[in-house]
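Extended Data, panel c. Modelled sequence:
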Amino acid sequence: MKEIKVFSSNDDLLIDRICAIFREKGIPFIKKEEGAGSYMNIAFGKSPMSKKTIFVSGEDYKKAKKLIDFLNAEDFNEEPEEISNELKAIPVDEFGNKIYSWPAKILGGIVVAFFIALVLLWVVQVVRYFN
């Protein structure tokens, strides 16, 4: 079986989506990562810098390419207004800052107070140590 490169990207979600479609359609494929990609993923988690490439057999190339072209066309035909409506749902003040609810403000205050208390305790311990 001769492997032919059918798609390459840094986007893990897109690569995983294409692999899932190939599995669903019964197209055998091989997914490879360039460089030390697999080793870096094991050591440090997923890296957006590692490029992934999908290979298919020569017999399945046309079918795979047609599916990828359809997937790309589907991704680029989204309505931009849907995205802008989601962004408008976030409450902001006249300066464009997010408006947080009072429970979020209280929780933030508690977290800040906790860290201030930790710093003060550390300072007290340092002073006691050197006296």
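The radius of gyration is 26 Å. This feature is highlighted in the accompanying rendering.
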